[in-house]
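To: structure subgroup
Subject: Chain for Friday's discussion

All,

I'm putting the inputs and outputs inline so they're searchable in the archive.
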Amino acid sequence: MDIDPTQPWGLAIDYAGRATLTENGHTIHVNVSDTSLSSIIGPDSITGTYSAVNITAQFTRSGEGGVALRGYGRITVMPVGTEPVVPDRTAIQRAVAAALADFETDRAAYAALCARWQPGDGSEEGEGDDTDTAPETDTESDTDTDIVV
């Protein structure tokens, strides 16, 4: 991802802290938000410090049969002392890199799962659905319970 040096966060974001970019063929949605519950930006009345800022990047790729793989990355920028958070031009870039890495990890895990799974009728171990193997229960122990008062 190219960082825009003219933007405080390295990417043009809208009034709500949102942006969209394309990276490695993925359309990635970015959100920059503080962690406070207040709509007023100011120091916390108890601690006297400003809230941290979260930068999230996420995207979804859909495939056949309703399959969806997601990539998600989050970076937190902490304030220094009692000052507000200073924009970090690399934070969005790092969140996007984390989302792409998360997606690739999930893609590789699903590919490995698909390579191991062999659809079948359940007749051989490791194949098909194991719902026909219920654990055996001992019905006699249910009736022989002693109650001590």
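Points worth raising on Friday:
Strands lie at 18-23, 26-34, 53-62, 68-77.
The first strand starts at residue 18 and ends at 23.

D.
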